[in-house]
Amino acid sequence: MSLDKPYLDVPGTTIFDAEQSRKGYHLNQFCMSLMKAANRERFKADERAYLDEWAMTEEQKQAVLARDLNRCIAAGGNIYFLAKIGATDGKSFQQMAGSMTGMTEDEYRNMMIAGGRSADGNRVVGEDGDAQANRQPQGSAHRAPASKTGN
Amino acid sequence: MAKITASVYTSHVPAIGAAIDLGKTTEAYWQPLFKGYEFSKQWMKDNKPDVIFLVYNDHATAFSLDMIPTFAIGTAASYQPADEGWGPRPVPVVQGHPELAAHIAQSVIQQDFDLTIVNKMDVDHGLTVPLSLMCGQPPAEDFHWPCPVIPFAVNVVQYPVPSGQRCFNLGKAIRTAVESYDENLNVQIWGTGGMSHQLQGPRAGLINREFDNAFLDKLIADPAAAAAIPHIDYVREAGSEGIELVMWLIARGAMNDVTGGKPPKTVHRFYHVPASNTAVGHLILENS
Questions:
Q1: What would the pLDDT profile of A1-24 be if each residue is shown by its tens digit?
Q2: Residue A32: inside a domain
């Protein structure tokens, strides 16, 4: 029997459902552990060793080490749990959310001040909005490492 | 008997708490938002309740993935503000109302809603930011919130979350429970979270003014229609985290007009974009 999951065709969006939660259990519990200051210190001192204490997949560990939140979410992470990594790194929720779009911090912040991202073209996969797969990454953050002047 | 006199609805964005705690409320970015709550702070002073029943969601703070209750009622004597990774907010400890909370738990479970009863938990920004917005920062020499609070946590993090209809019906059951409590208490019910926002993926930053304002209209005048909105409409129109709006339906379902009383009076309505990643909506409805 198939389950009712009408949300699978929303572009640029992964709904954290029971299946994602099952996949991401150890990843998200690792994140939870960073709510304790002593654990944050141990993680920062040797990230790989700390991650190896958890029954996470190698892909989950690599996604955390790369601070690639889109990869973390694909591997079962949930943003409210992943936010504990951002807090450990001293990042705000806006910096974390923006990092998943390919925009620079300023580009994302300015989009929000201008009223945010429109739902038009972004409701269903196959429309023409800026969150659609064929328009990623957005903004210029992905060009920054190659060209320091572009920052 | 105890009575629900009013309902309050507000977003609970963590950055709002940070702006208050770091003294940034008069900065150009934040000033328009806090102006929208000036009326509310005065209204709270003029209409001080005996108890606030505060519907919110925990953001991976008290509840990890070890246990995920759909509806959890706090029956403790007090709740500590949580360290969410940035350190605890410098706000007062939240005092509970164990007697009324236990009474509501008993009644609501007998009305077929399976509540999880929580005797120990910390409360995160979902609960403390609405208190800060409505009550302001209590002065150091009188450091407490104006009244006891019953925390009521709803799972809106892991799908499937409860439907709008179920939340609306739960509100009705909560009102029945409150009205069967013998002591004369003035109870407010608050629904928090929302409005449109998405915090994940390439679609992060989604805001939908039209949806949000239509939702506010509907919540005021035709709450049964608001309750009928399916999950998928929130996701498509208001972003994946916009689903938090189902919590507003619990508060709305507890108002008198839902079971044949007079329509509530809208004493305040406010909407602002953005607070960090989020559209902020706010309503105060009084039972007539």
A1: 688 999 999 999 999 999 999 999
A2: yes
Both A130 and A86 in one domain: the answer is no
The predicted structure's pLDDT at residue A147: 43
Task: Tally the C-alpha atoms within 13 A of residue B124's C-alpha that lie toward its C-beta.
Answer: 23
- Same-domain status, A20 and A86: yes
Domain B3-281 fold is: Protocatechuate 4,5-dioxygenase; Chain B (3.40.830)
Q: Do A15 and B85 touch (CB under 8 A)?
A: no
Which residue of B lies nearest to A129 if distances are taken between CA atoms? B203
Q: What was the pLDDT predicted at A148?
A: 41
Q: What is the pLDDT of residue A150?
A: 39
Chain A residue numbers with beta carbons less than 8 Å from the beta carbon of B207 are 112, 115-118
B125 is known as an active-site residue? yes
Q: Residue B239 corresponds to which amino acid?
A: G
Question: Of the given ranges (A108-117, A141-150, B101-110, B111-120), which has the lowest mean pLDDT?
Answer: A141-150
Q: Which residue among A61, A90, A119 closes a domain?
A: A90
Same-domain check for residues A77 and A112: no
Are B276 and A112 a contacting pair at CB < 8 A?
A: yes
DSSP string, B40-58: HHHHHHHT--SEEEEEE--
Q: What are phi and psi of B278, to 5 degrees?
A: -130, 150
Q: Kindly state the tokens that stand for A25.
A: 């259990």
Looking at the fold, whether A69 and A117 belong to one and the same domain comes out as no
Nearest by CB to A88, from B14, B85, B211: name it. B85
What lies within 8 Å, CB to CB, of B109 at 6+ separation is B115
Q: Give the β-pairing of B116-118 and B3-10.
A: unpaired
Number of structural domains chain A divides into: 2
What does the pLDDT look like over A25-80, one tens digit per residue?
A: 999 999 999 999 899 999 999 999 999 999 999 999 999 999 999 999 999 999 99
Confidence (pTM): 0.96
CATH number, residue A85: 1.10.700.10
Q: Cβ A35–B202 below 8 Å, yes or no?
A: no
For residue A20, give its domain range.
15-90
